[in-house]
Amino acid sequence: MKPNLRLWDYGAPIGSTAIALLLSLWLDPLQDIWSVLTCILISFFLNLLTQAVLFQQLKTELIERKQMETTWKQAKEELENRVAERTAQLLEVNNHLIETVIEQQKKQHILLEQAQLLDLAHDTIITRDLNGVISLWNKGAEYMYGWTKAEAWGQILHTLLKTEFTQPLREIEIELLAKGYWEGELTHVRRDAQLIHVASRWVVQKNSIGKPVKILEINNDITESKRIKDALRVSEERFRQIAENIQAVFWMVDIQNQQTLYVSKAYETIWQRSRESLYQNFSDWLESIHPDDSHYLDISYTSMSTTGKSDVKYRIYRPDGSIRWIRDRAFPVRNELGQVVQIGGISEDITELQKIDEMKNEFISIVSHELRTPLTAIRAALGLLQSGIYDQKPDKFKRMIEIASLDSDRLVRLVNDILDLERLESGRAVLEKIIYPATDLIQQAVAGVNAIAKPQDIHFHIHPTDALVWVEPDAILQTLTNLFSNAIKFSPANSSITVIVQQQSDHVLFQIRDQGRGIPADKLEFIFGRFQQVDATDSRSKGGTGLGLAICRSIIEQHGGQIWSQSIVGVGSTFSFTLPLPPKEMK
Ligand code: ADP
């Protein structure tokens, strides 16, 4: 509107001049035109001037107005910018708030879930303040100890549970604060007064400035596992004691991983190699195997890999050059699914057993041979008699009967001697020792053999003695009888046998000296072996079995004495043995 008024203002001088002219002409139509024109001109210029002034004013106003408009526009823009900026800020804050709220909701949800989980957990979860006052007691704690949440809250934990510590509480607390946690075993008493062992883990909870405020305690009942563990430890200890003390080697291997898991101390004694070398190298023991026996090991290894079992005998070379016989038995160790997980075994040094076995085999073959000889003779004699060829020849008939009878006697002697020896060496013969005068034993034995000595004019010279011995009389009589019989058998007619008994410091020495054919020096020890004779014909010509001296040695050794022989061929032999004196307290 205003700019229109201004236009009107600019048109006014022209309009007013025209009106002044018309007015002057209407008042005085005779007026001089020039003066009128002059007047009009003046008026026009005046108006023009006025208009110019007005125009100038208008222009100034317009400029000012424009400036104002610019300022207003700038202010408006500024305001709009600020509004936009503020709106963005508010939007951001709003978004942040929404995020925070969502976050909080999530956290609350998680906390709720965790709280539920704490209750679901089988573990006992408890929190307590630094004074031990319980502030959290989950379902696991209710279940394990028997007190409800309501009953436990506010109570002093270790008073309630009558905690017993395996180390001083002060030490535990120092460790807890230093490390932020502590782990160990505790003993608690449940509501029903039952004692339980728990594995306990404590964790310090700190506030925002890092100050400890609470302790979280998680406990697990290990009573049963501890009982099993203790029982296992006892049984392991027992096993270890047995394994370490038995003379056999007990071993355990993981055959798949070729690893030695355990080997007992006896390995070092038997193999004369270190156990360490076996732990480091599974196959170390194989180096000592006798090359001739290594194929047994291959067979055994195959059987062990498939069934977990094997039973093998082999020889080993030891660093000192000796050879030992080993019996190695393996058995599978299975897991609860029945799968073979390890292999255990026992290796025994059977060298002595092997020797006895060899001797037994040798003994059996000799015995069968010795028994067969008289049996064959008896059978042959009886066969001839049965055939009737000597029916008309009484001398021959009689001779056959004699042979059968002699060989039957020999057979009886043999069987008796074998049985005696077996009884003595098996340890089944228990000696019932008594105090007995040595002279009495000698006289009884001499009386027993006199019947064979007399016909040959062989005389006994017995040196008197009052020595007493600690013996089983029958066994010593058997020994003396055998030695006297031998002396008679191998002595010439009309000779003498001297018997000397001497009491010495810790035993009584018996000596039987004959004047017989003597024994070669290299046979002096040999004749004490089973079925050993100086001359192979002695068994037939002298009726011996070759077992007499073996029986004598066995009897004397069982009395704790010794027996030996000395001889000069062609001059005579002396058989000596010692017997124990009666125990001092029995004299
Ligand atoms: P046996 O006398 O039954 O043959 P022994 O074991 O008693 O068996 O004796 C073994 C061997 O020792 C005899 O066969 C004999 O060769 C020898 N012997 C034993 N005693 C004497 C002895 N007094 N004089 C000579 N040789 C003997």
Q: Which short descriptors sum up this protein?
A:
587 residues; alpha+beta; 6-stranded antiparallel β-sheet; 5-stranded antiparallel β-sheet; 18 strands; rod-shaped; disordered N terminus; binds adenosine-5'-diphosphate
Any ligands, ions or cofactors bound here, and which? adenosine-5'-diphosphate
Number of strands: 18
Query: Mean of the pLDDT scores?
Result: 88
- Could you give a short account of the major beta sheet? 6 strands, antiparallel
Strand content: 15-25%
> What class do helices, strands and sheet pairing give?
alpha+beta
Strand arrangement within the widest β-sheet reads: 2-1-6-5-4-3
Distance between the termini: 165 Å
What would you call the shape? rod-shaped
Enumerate how many helices there are, as a single number. 16
Rg, nearest Å = 65 Å
The low-confidence runs, each spanning 5 or more residues with pLDDT under 50, are 1-11
Helix percent reads 40-55%
Descriptive report:
- The protein has 587 residues and is of the alpha+beta class.
- The protein contains 16 helices and 18 strands.
- Strands 2-1-6-5-4-3 form a six-stranded antiparallel sheet. It has a five-stranded antiparallel sheet with strand order 8-7-11-10-9.
- The radius of gyration is 65 Å and the shape is rod-shaped.
- It starts with a helix and ends in a 7-residue tail after the last strand.
- The structure holds adenosine-5'-diphosphate.
- Residues 482, 486-487, 490, 514, 516-517, 519, 527, 533-535, 538-539, 544-549, 573 line the site of adenosine-5'-diphosphate.
- Adenosine-5'-diphosphate is lined by residues 482, 486-487, 490, 514, 516-517, 519, 527, 533-535, 538-539, 544-549, 573.
